[in-house]
Amino acid sequence: MRVLVTGGAGYVGSHTLLPLLRARHHVLVFDNFSNGSPEALRRVKQLSNADFDVCAGDIRDAQKLEQAFGEFRPDAVIHLAGLKSVGESDRRPLEYYSQNVVGSIELLKAMQRHHCRKIVFSSSATVYGEARYLPCDEEHPTLPLKPYGRTKYFIEQIIRDWSSAEAGSSAVLLRYFNPAGADASGRIGEDPIGVPANLVPYIAQVATGRLASLRIFGGDYETRDGTGERDFVHVEDLARAHVAAIDHVARSPGCEAINVGAGSGATVLEMVKAFEKASGMPIPFTIAARREGDVSRSLAAARKAESMLGWKAERDIADICETAWRWQSGNPDGYGNRK
Ligand code: UFG
Question: Which of 12, 291, 292, 298 to probe ligand 1 with, by most ligand atoms within 8 A of CB?
């Protein structure tokens, strides 16, 4: 198929390109490079030994989208572009609604104009909010706690409404749990701008000595060891889920929300220990106050992904830590020149 990938130069995007290209899909990356890197795309081309087109543009730019859709004529879209910092979304909600929600509407409008009716959307488990029961299945009530999560929730609703109005359309809303790790090659990985907000890239930078010590947000949660528990899903597994979802939208109409998680959890402390083991480096930490807006536990029921997409996580937190370390130690400055 001809697949347009918004946000294809980002962390999840660059990893998704690899199995997509290996499955011989034709790809156009559409990215504004606000948090993605041209160097990541260069490395994806090397690793896959495949070529693809790149269009530098913002999804709110209707003209740029028009040009991309007109020239590339996609059969399907993988929509990953969006702002993703939960804390920042609290401080700059309008930017988040504009980039994520308005951008998604422009994208759907371009799809409609060009009779492209298949979309895989990068949603998030954050749409569930604080869990009423665990593991969270797709029927769990949705009550996101922060503007970032609300943008994901609103886009899900918009895609649902578009899909009911658009005959022959097909959508998969992938609700990611906690993506982490890097491609096994260690050549591409997560390269946050500034100080990382997420756990694994933060730990990785402590391990290389770039950051002095980890602050663990909260030691008094009702978990095995008092620290928050998350369902970490290896980014290579997550990447495969997108390809499985593309196969699904190609053959089945409708709109489905599907969890993408490993179905098992690790606490923050367990992650620290796993990273120390994988890297051989000490990870100094202190226990600090809880971070506002954090849930105590997040855990996926991943059965729907298995039955509907034939997808299941294959890698564990040891693989996550090993590959994150390979990437961080081999590329201590990430892709370079971005800070
Ligand atoms: N944590 C720390 N110290 C840090 C960073 C994180 O203790 O420096 C803790 C957090 O408090 C939390 C856990 O590590 O308990 C995971 O935190 P992350 O920031 O890595 O991930 P979140 O679970 O907060 O959020 C992630 C993504 C969101 C997504 C959500 C879905 O960042 O985009 O998972 O569950 F919505």
Answer: 291
- pLDDT tens-place string over residues 178-197: 999 999 999 999 999 999 99
Tokens of 113: 């104009």
169 in ligand 1 pocket by Cβ < 6 Å? no
What are the DSSP E strand ranges found in 63-131?
Answer: 76-79, 118-124
- Residue 301, classed as helix, strand or coil, is coil
* Domain 2-180+232-263+299-314 listed as CATH 3.40.50.720: yes
**Could you give the CA distance from residue 183 to residue 300 in angstroms, rounded to a whole number?**
23
Q: Which residues have a Cβ under 8 Å from the Cβ of 48 and sit 6 or more positions away?
A: 17, 18, 21, 22
Active-site choice (11, 148, 153, 335): 148
Query: Is 148 in the active site?
Result: yes
* Domain residue limits, the chain: 2-180+232-263+299-314
The predicted model gives 304-317 an average pLDDT of 98
As a whole number of angstroms, the distance between CA 93 and CA 72 comes to 33
Q: Ligand 1 pocket: which of 100, 221, 294 to mutate (most atoms <8 Å of CB)?
A: 294
Q: CA–CA separation, 100 vs 92, rounded Å?
A: 12
Confirm or reject: Cβ of 296 under 6 Å from ligand 1. no
Note the pTM of the prediction, 2 decimals: 0.98
Question: Is 78 near ligand 1, meaning CB less than 6 Å away?
Answer: no
